[in-house]
Specification:
It contains 4 helices and 36 strands. It is mainly beta. Among the domains are: 68 residues, no CATH class; 87 residues, no CATH class. It has a 7-stranded antiparallel β-sheet with strand order 31-30-27-28-29-26-34, with no helix packed on it. The protein starts with 6 loop residues before the first helix and ends with a strand.
Length: 568
């Protein structure tokens, strides 16, 4: 079946995402950070015989790796060599301990090569397991963006011109595609606009295309609303380059705030059209397709644009032999969705007011093409005109934001976006500015814990296990997470809840009991019996974006400025 998903559909989805952030019944999007622990290769094991040792090399099924952590049902490995993932059921053997196990799920990862996210329910649960904190995304933190093209004669000397009919040649034949000057087969992938050194954005309406230069010519002077003398003229929203005849339409100027928040090396935020009043169906450009011959020689001819609009007039200049040497728009008209120029008797005039008909020889030839404006006119809908099918979110993590929801004493390796998560223990969609993703306990006694160390506590039913995310020595508050991959006892994750047994750090050897008398808020955390659940309900909402990254280190005096670009 011959079918396509149009660019308009992608732009629509991007607009809908942006609009959802500010609607009366707004979609609540949260940017999150997680994964404080290092990236290691993960090997799930079963039928374990013996005890694997940290530091030994394990081999089997093409795998050779050094054991970094040993857990009940898994090994974390620094991979020395892995020609392929070990097949399920392959025997894995420890080089020193001689322990053995059967291999199950394997996932390669290193600190320099994080694993690609997987779109399934298991991955979603894993994201929540080590989620640190989340910050609500409002419309203030999001913009539609398009690819950025800078003014640079060294790297970008030639530009495509805006035309609505670029297309690829269909694979099955039956049509011939139209390519841009730079070889793109679609307007959406072409370089037809530019941001100048003053953060002004211009659209290229004409790039010097003639029959002799079918793909146009190189630009020479930067389009500006206040051009340097001799480089071009600016009037009525149009910059005309003096040397090449490039015609540029002024669209908007980036605000200082948008430059800081949303301008990146690759993407340009959409602003608000700031040129003259938009005219729907105006025809701004005409180009010579065939210079022809036998028209009135060395003369200026005025030709009406035929179509469903009105008022469009093309000025045609001829040379010796009656060939067309130049064309300009004498009047742009309005209301055109299609148009053509007929060089025939009754449609050619000797005056700009098109009152005096000019006879045309029957053997006259030549062709002029008029370029249709986008729907609504240039500037009517910047998102559609620039094919802004991407949304950029800009999130600033300012120190220990959210009263410590975003701790500064640990790093993170995963970021993403969650739609409509619930408050913990409810089915109420969260609305708070920030949400803590870790559990917490208030401890008594003395001694300091180390971030990322394993912690344990003897509880009813066995041993509770977890990993330290943050330690507040002043208030004695330990934030941690628990994962079914790493922290089970006899197949179950047990909660830290014993009032007398110590919470012990594997690295620090610090051992302190939970303060069961802490029943009030402390450091903006509400405790009951010295314990606090996360503020975000596990596995609630929809995770719409996940990105696994290299380590991002935080500090008490540091602000992270994180830009995410989502393409629809």
């Amino acid at each position: 079946m011959a079918a396509i998903i149009s660019e308009k559909f992608r732009i629509f989805n991007a607009k809908q995402f942006l609009e959802s952030l500010s609607e009366a019944s707004a979609t609540n999007m949260y940017f999150f950070v997680g994964r404080p622990q290092k990236w290691y290769a993960y090997l799930e094991v079963y039928n374990v015989s013996g005890t694997f040792q940290v530091g030994e090399t394990v081999t089997g099924g093409g795998l050779s790796g050094t054991v970094q952590e040993v857990h009940a049902n898994s090994l974390l490995l620094a991979v020395v060599n892995a020609t392929s993932a070990p097949a399920a059921g392959t025997t894995i053997t420890g080089g020193t301990s001689t322990a053995t196990a059967k291999a199950s799920t394997y996932r390669y990862a290193t600190e320099d090569a994080p694993p690609a996210p997987i779109d399934n329910q298991i991955e979603k649960a894993a994201v929540y397991d080590d989620l640190i904190a989340a910050k609500r995304i409002t419309s203030t933190f999001a913009r539609l963006v398009a690819p950025r093209y800078n003014w640079s004669l060294s790297t970008n000397p030639k530009f495509d011109m805006y035309r609505p009919n670029y297309s690829p040649t269909p694979g099955g034949g039956g049509a011939i595609g139209v390519q841009t000057a730079l070889g793109s087969s679609a307007l959406s992938g072409s370089k037809y606009y530019v941001m100048n050194s003053n953060y002004e954005v211009f659209k290229c309406l004409y790039n010097g295309q003639t029959p002799a230069n079918a793909t146009g010519i190189n630009a020479t002077h930067e389009p500006k609303t206040s051009p340097t003398a001799g480089q071009g003229t600016y009037a009525n929203g149009i910059f005309t380059e003096s040397a090449t005849g490039y015609i540029w339409k002024y669209m908007y100027t980036l605000s200082t705030a948008d430059v800081i928040a949303f301008l990146s090396s690759d993407f340009l935020p959409m602003g608000t059209y700031a040129g003259p009043a938009v005219v729907d169906g105006a025809v701004h450009i005409a180009v010579i397709t065939d210079g022809g011959a036998n028209l009135p020689t060395n003369d200026d001819l005025y030709v009406k644009v035929d179509g469903d609009g009105s008022g469009g007039i093309v000025k045609i200049t001829t040379g010796a032999g009656g060939a067309i040497s130049a064309v300009t728009m004498e009047a742009v008209g309005s209301g055109y969705t299609y148009g053509s120029v007929r060089l025939v008797n009754g449609n050619v005039f000797s005056d700009a007011g098109v009152t005096t008909n000019l006879p045309i020889n029957a053997n006259a030839t030549g062709k002029v093409e008029v370029i249709m404006s986008p729907e609504g006119g240039h500037g009517a809908d910047l998102a559609n005109e620039f094919f802004a099918k991407r949304v950029m979110t800009n999130i600033r993590l300012t120190y220990a934001e959210g009263s410590g929801d975003f701790p500064v004493d640990n790093d993170f390796r995963r970021i993403g976006i969650i739609q409509d998560p619930f408050n913990y223990g409810t089915t109420t969609v969260a609305t708070a500015s920030t949400l803590r993703g870790t559990a917490a306990v208030k401890l008594t006694g003395s001694g300091d814990y180390t971030v990322d160390e394993e912690i344990t506590q003897t509880v009813s039913g066995g041993t509770a296990k977890g990993r330290v995310v943050s330690w507040d020595a002043t208030n004695g508050i330990l934030k941690y997470f628990q994962s079914p991959d790493l922290h089970t006892h006899n197949g179950k994750v047990l909660a830290f809840d014993h009032a007398t047994n110590n919470v012990t750090g594997a690295t620090s050897s610090t051992a302190r009991p939970i303060d069961a008398n802490q029943d009030t808020a402390l450091a903006d955390i509400s405790f009951t019996d010295g314990k606090a659940n996360p503020e975000i309900a596990p596995n609630s909402g929809d995770i719409v974006y996940i990105e696994n990254r290299r380590q991002i280190t935080r500090a008490a005096d540091q602000i992270e400025d994180i830009k995410l670009v989502i393409e629809f």
